[in-house]
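Hi F.,

I've been meaning to write this up properly since the lab meeting, where we talked about keeping a consistent format for the predictions we share between groups. The idea is simple: the sequence comes first, exactly as it goes in, then the structure tokens exactly as they come out, then a line or two of notes. No screenshots and no reformatting. I'm using this chain as the first example so we have something concrete to point to.
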Amino acid sequence: MDSLTIGIIGCVALIVLLFVGVPVAFALCAVGFVGIAAVIGWGKSISMFTTVPFSQTSAYTMTPMPLFVLMASLTFAGGLSAGLYDAAAKWLVKLKGGLGIATTIACTLFGTLTGSALVTAAMFTKVSVPEMRKHGYDSSFAHGLTCASSVIGMLIPPSIIAILYGVLAEESIAKLFMAGIGPGLLTAVGFSLLIYFKVKKDPGLAPLAEDVFTWKEKFSSLANIWPMILIAVVMLGGIFTGMFTVTEGGAIGAFSTLIVLIAMKKMNWGVAKWASLDTVKTNAMIFLLLIGATVFSRFITITGVTSKFVALITESGIPEMGVMASLMLMYLVLGCFLDPTSQLCITLPLVLPIAKSFGWDPIYFAMLVIYMMHIATVTPPVGLTLFATKGAADPDISFVDISRGTIPFIFVMVGIMVILVFCEPLTIGLARWM
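Output, unedited:
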């Protein structure tokens, strides 16, 4: 049996293992290990498998990951989300759809610090949705905007997905961070405008709140938000200007978050224990996926599947934009079954050579992939963020209600995706300047 046939069988075996419920990391390792053994022998496969775990997880490029995950865990465990929403709500309460726009802003800020759309969706479904419903907001609209807004923070640095992409593709993590700012802010503005004009057209969706806050109350609410904004500005500003590396930025971010929690008297033994354990578990999961992705990548490279696949695409006669659209559609479909981290580990060995063959800017292509994966997480019927929202919602809210509420926001994200495709500077302008 020739190596190409073995490679194709291995890819089919991976799909089967994933469908029967085998964890992604173990499926990648198993297929890669057995496949390499079938091509070049058990001895070399065992030798490779004994060196890859250490070489991948001990690489310096991986050091930012645990630090940013620790910062995210501390932010979540310290309960900083309520303060973010309270401040945004008090300042925007008299604006049409003000509480909804406040939710979008708070989700963006909190998601930026935690790096998890699922955590953000679950948290703000419990924090902001009850407030919106209390003020007469349509339930489907309130849940939909919360679910959709939770993915914005995953685009804006520090993004765990951007770090993982940088490690797997061997691209600059700092440049990936900067490239995410434009799409993230554009999405936040797009959602805010959508909320404003939908409410202006149909006031029944979100009646204007009757609450009145004094200027003293508004400025007092900023006490719960400015420390986190300061941390983000210092951390990202230092990385952008070159004052410190991404790793040092992660250390500064995690340490500063700890100091803020102590100063706000939100740090205790329970918070420290939960954040530490969550950091270890999250990083263990990511490292296992990285090991599996490396083993599988070497397998399909050895068998020639990668080169054959690239040749098939480039020689098919499909226009360049047709190939781009097909790849983006692939990520939309994969998002129905896999989380973004797993998608990257499985697909990058195949799609990166295609992007390079067409001469696409690697940072530009990275942001399109990351953005598309996050559209998939809120797309019915099986977007993962939809399930996180449903899990935290009240029992009277159905999955259909949440899905219906996200649809207008999905159209906004698709529109922004089209803009990003045809307006490259929006994705890589800051990265190039840097």
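Notes:
The mean pLDDT is 80.
The chain has one domain: 64-279+315-433.

If this format works for you, I'll send the rest the same way.

G.
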